[in-house]
Amino acid sequence: MSEGSAAVGRLFALLVGPGLMMIFAAAIFQNGDGVFHGKSIAYWTIFSGVVAGRILEFRGGHPQTSTGEPAEPHHLREFLVRGTVVALAVWAAAFFLRQR
Which of 12, 29, 57, 65 is deepest in the core (most CB within 10 A)? Predict the structure, then answer.
């Protein structure tokens, strides 16, 4: 795996993906269609891309933490667990507290 693909994975996992997820969470909050409709599906698809991007970075050879230090496998596990919990909490808040 090239360093370029690892860099793209890192960029998507730490910047682009979370930004897109927040946009879709706001859209779900404002006028969500339901649990299994477009915006929710897009939100979780983007989250899957965030996870894939982080894994891609780890497989690229030189993973880093958000502060630039070398990352180890336990950092990936923490990212996956915390990321899933936060993504689920944000989605649930947007879905269940949305304005009607």
Answer: 57
